[in-house]
Amino acid sequence: MQEKRIGVELRALHNLLKRRVEASPTHNDVHALTGTHGYVLGYLAHHAQDGPQYQRNIEEVFSIRPPTATAILQTMERNGLIVREPSPDDARLKQIVLTEKAWALHERVEAEHAQTEQLLRQGLTQAELDVFFRVTEKLKATLDRRSTV
């Protein structure tokens, strides 16, 4: 029997999660809403009280490159989920602000994410979850170190 490969298993898990998100009623409410848009929307909603949010925040939190973040934010702007406003501190920067449409959608996305999280945790002990999160942190740290070489 061939040994299981981490990358293959992660990809399979990613595909299952993506399929679940794309099949959700919320996904159909906004043209081209992807799981990534939902996560970015959630991040922006959860950090709205922390002060202005910028593209660089999205890049750092989601470990994505600037062109990818630009494409995500442009799509969200076209779909009426965000607007970019001049920063109160630096006119060269544009802060990302959620629209009313995005706030309403966020509530629905949050409910769906909570259901998915509950499903993922179903049947796992706290000890298993602790191990899972420790292992994923190690994998991310290893990949992050390797990507800068």
Please describe what this structure looks like.
The chain is mostly helical. It is 66% helix and 7% strand. The chain contains seven helices and two strands, in the order αααααββαα. It has a two-stranded antiparallel ribbon. A hairpin with a 7-residue loop joins strand 1 (82-86) and strand 2. Helix 4 crosses helix 5. The mean pLDDT is 89.
Extended strand count: 2
What would the CATH topology be? Arc Repressor Mutant, subunit A
Strand order of the largest sheet: 1-2
- Major beta sheet, specifics? 2 strands, antiparallel
**Mean pLDDT rating:** 89
CATH superfamily: Winged helix-like DNA-binding domain superfamily/Winged helix DNA-binding domain
Structural class: mainly alpha
Number of domains: 1
> What Rg, in angstroms, do the CA atoms define?
17 Å
| Percent strand | 5-15%
Low-confidence runs of at least 5 consecutive residues? none
CATH architecture: Orthogonal Bundle
Percent helix: 55-70%
Intertermini distance: 34 Å
- Gross geometry: globular
Helix tally equals 7
Q: What's the helix-strand series?
A: HHHHHEEHH
- The CATH class is identified as Mainly Alpha
Brief synopsis:
The protein has helices at residues 6-22, 25-29, 35-46, 55-62, 66-78, 100-121, 126-147, and strands at 82-86, 94-98.
Structural features:
149 residues, mainly alpha, Arc Repressor Mutant, subunit A, two-stranded antiparallel sheet, 7% strand
Topology:
Blueprint: H1 6-22, H2 25-29, H3 35-46, H4 55-62, H5 66-78, E1 82-86, E2 94-98, H6 100-121, H7 126-147
Antiparallel strand pairs: 1-2
Helix pairs in contact: 3-6, 4-5
